[in-house]
């Protein structure tokens, strides 16, 4: 009976996993098709963007699954379940570890090979539409730089020992032999961990830039809403009349045959470009005002306000918890050399208090963790969409509905992959013991030694990837402070800004008239 029940639970788990995977693929397809340009869309770039986005979302589900599996092996009284003997526990741990190996290897493949190759291929295609073989060769040549970086990171992680024995009489050959023995004993875990941790640091910078701003911009935009299309049309019509009158005044100077001055010609050119932009705005505003989607959005306006209030509460809860967790590390950790790692919690935070309460009602704690992970993903998407893609002070691409170039979509998916890697550490910062052990309980015996108690619990595989190298942990610690600062700055800026235009970012002066056809399909 127990075996039948376990098999039934396993089958149910696989069915839920299949449904979740299907839902993720459908969401990725809809999201990419919604934002990609119809004129510049390509099959390979579309497939790459959908696949990379799906990998990012699937990878984000690793943490809740890992926590659930280690918690599911034990009863509420602290004893292991009958089926969870040493062999079964080891098999489950290995399965989760292989899952991390697989997905993290796919992330390395996407970041260092596939996405760079497709990106450079289309960059070359825009410059040279002739020889496909030449485009492939050039893209491969540029991609080799990324592959070299990946190989260097793997080698550093594989052969730089974390714990070197202090033997003065050891020979150089013995030291080299030690490196290979250490690499073999870790089964490549250290090499992969170093590479992933290096990417996680880049993901931390992306999270500070985009996620922190998205956490403030997304809820406040939902609460404030957008301006009325009818009101914007009225203002736009007045602007068109004003520009036309200004053009007539300037052109009236040459009615008697006199040529315009160079200054007037420049002014006429600027006014004509401005007039074309305003007329495009007029067409878009007219389409939006008549569309069924606008009427639907107006009908669910109260629901958007409720969601906005919910998201801002979650953002503030997360920020306060992150601040208290970082303050705890600053006051009670061993310092920089240890990576600011602490065992236990001295200063509790709202999330740390909430998770043990939710553990009493299955599966509320896993729903909360999953919600936080998905909240990170969607606020990151919102931040990238609002800010665009930047390289320091240079704006590379804009993310616009129906008008996003293939290269911009590839950049967006790569950034999301990197942010997902950093998400696990962010959640660990909020609830370190929960991320390490889930809802496991231990048997209280006479010897209340910490090491003895911890030996009774199984550590999640996530923790093994997070804390292989202390200097990465130290970088994450300082990154958390930067994240809090950027969130507060973004919150102040978002509060001071007025309502967004109903066609925010969809009509620019550098757009062609052909772009109107791309966007019109969304407002019919």
Task: Write up this protein.
A hairpin with a 2-residue loop joins strand 1 and strand 2. This protein has 524 residues and is mainly alpha-helical. Helix content is 73%, strand content 1%. It contains 19 helices and two strands. It has a two-stranded antiparallel sheet. Pfam families: LMBR1 (PF04791). It is a multi-pass membrane protein. InterPro entries: LMBD1_LysCbl_Transport, LMBR1-like_membr_prot. One of its GO terms (biological process) is protein localization to lysosome. One of its GO terms (molecular function) is cobalamin binding.
What is the count of DSSP helices, taking H or I runs of 4+ residues?
19
Residue stretches low in confidence (pLDDT < 50, at least 5 long) are 164-169, 445-454, 518-524
> How far do the termini sit from each other?
57 Å
Helix content: over 70%
Strand content: under 5%
Neighbour order of strands in the largest sheet: 1-2
| Principal-axes shape call | globular
Question: Order of helices and strands, N to C?
Answer: HHHHHHHHHHHHHEEHHHHHH
Q: Report the strand count.
A: 2
């Amino acid at each position: 009976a127990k075996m039948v029940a376990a098999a039934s639970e396993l089958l149910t788990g696989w069915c839920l996993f299949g449904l979740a995977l299907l839902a993720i693929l459908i969401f990725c397809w809809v999201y990419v098709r919604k934002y990609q340009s119809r004129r510049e869309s390509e099959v390979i770039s579309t497939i790459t963007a959908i696949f990379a986005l799906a990998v990012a979302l699937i990878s984000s589900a690793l943490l809740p699954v890992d926590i659930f599996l280690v918690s599911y092996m034990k009863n509420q009284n602290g004893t292991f379940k009958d089926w969870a003997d040493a062999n079964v526990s080891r098999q489950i741990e290995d399965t989760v570890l292989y899952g991390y190996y697989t997905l993290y290897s796919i992330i390395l493949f996407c970041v260092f090979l596939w996405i760079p190759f497709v990106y450079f291929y289309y960059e070359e295609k825009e410059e040279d539409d002739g020889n496909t073989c030449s485009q492939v060769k050039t893209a491969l040549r540029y991609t080799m730089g990324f592959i070299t970086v990946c190989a260097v990171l793997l080698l550093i992680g594989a052969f730089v020992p974390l714990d070197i024995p202090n033997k003065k009489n050891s020979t150089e050959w013995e030291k080299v032999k030690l490196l290979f023995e250490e690499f073999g004993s870790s089964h490549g875990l250290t090499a992969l961990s170093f590479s992933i941790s290096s990417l996680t640091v880049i993901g931390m910078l992306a999270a500070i830039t985009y996620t922190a701003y998205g956490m403030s911009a997304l809820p406040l935009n939902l609460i404030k809403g957008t301006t009325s299309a009818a009101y914007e049309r009225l203002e736009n019509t007045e602007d068109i009349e004003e520009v036309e009158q200004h053009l007539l005044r300037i052109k009236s100077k040459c009615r008697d045959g006199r040529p315009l001055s160079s200054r007037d010609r420049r002014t006429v050119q600027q006014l004509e470009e401005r007039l074309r932009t305003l007329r495009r705005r007029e067409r878009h505003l007219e389409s939006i005002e008549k569309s069924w989607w606008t009427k639907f959005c107006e009908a669910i306006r109260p629901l958007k306000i409720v969601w906005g209030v919910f998201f801002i509460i979650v953002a503030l809860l997360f920020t306060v918890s992150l601040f208290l967790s970082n303050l705890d590390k600053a006051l009670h950790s061993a310092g920089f050399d240890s990576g600011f790692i602490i065992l236990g919690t001295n200063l509790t935070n709202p999330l740390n208090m909430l998770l043990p309460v939710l553990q009493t009602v299955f599966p509320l704690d896993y729903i909360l963790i999953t919600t936080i992970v998905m909240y990170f993903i969607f606020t990151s998407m919102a931040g990238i969409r609002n800010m665009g893609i930047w390289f320091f002070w240079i704006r590379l691409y804009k993310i616009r509905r129906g008008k996003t170039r293939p290269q911009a979509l590839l950049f967006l998916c790569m950034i999301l992959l990197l942010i997902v890697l950093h998400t696990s550490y962010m959640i660990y910062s909020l609830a370190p013991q929960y991320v390490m052990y889930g809802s496991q309980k231990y048997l209280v015996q006479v010897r209340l030694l910490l090491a003895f108690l911890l030996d009774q619990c199984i550590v999640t595989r996530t923790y093994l990837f997070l804390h292989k190298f202390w200097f990465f942990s130290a970088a994450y610690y300082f990154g958390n402070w930067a994240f809090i600062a950027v969130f507060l700055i973004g919150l102040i800026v978002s509060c001071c800004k007025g309502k967004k235009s109903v066609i925010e970012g969809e009509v620019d002066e550098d757009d062609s008239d052909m772009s109107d056809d791309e966007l019109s399909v969304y407002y019919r």
